[in-house]
Prior knowledge:
Blueprint: E1 9-13, H1 20-36, H2 43-51, E2 56-60, E3 67-72, E4 80-86, H3 95-107, E5 113-118, H4 123-127, E6 131-136, E7 139-144, H5 149-155
Parallel strand pairs: 4-5
Antiparallel strand pairs: 1-2, 2-3, 3-4, 5-7, 6-7
Amino acid sequence: MTDENSATYSQIWGASRHSPGSKERVDRATKVLSAEFRGRYTPELIAEILTDPQNVLLVSNDPGREALAVVVKAGSEGQKLLLMWVSPDARREGVGSRLLRYIIQVFTTHHFLSLHCHSGLEGIYLRHGFHPLFTTDGFCYMAGPAASRDEVEHLSPPFLRTPRPAD
């Protein structure tokens, strides 16, 4: 297992910032993410998402423990962890938790992060302070990190708030 402090990530912001060196990493991430999330994200859709200068691709620099994430609208209200993936060989070694802690540290200073995941797979996010807002069509919509769901709902942008039943 890698020491938590030794994991580093490259941030690749929008296609306008792709250098020849990062293009290979962007292409690899597009291929991996579209294969992992096939049916929902095509290579063309991922490439389009990654061209927005407000969206960031995170790529682990830890050899043998490949991890990727896409944060859209990074650093602004309404930012979302769109995709997160860890190579099968690195799962259950804390690689996903390290990546999520990095995302929280770098991108949630002034804003919450929203995400959705398949229902039943939200454990990693719950452990890191995310709270379910609602579940629909087999997906759990979450926001955080925060101490409580009330805090998430109170401080989240209006489009993330869920109506509560009248008392």
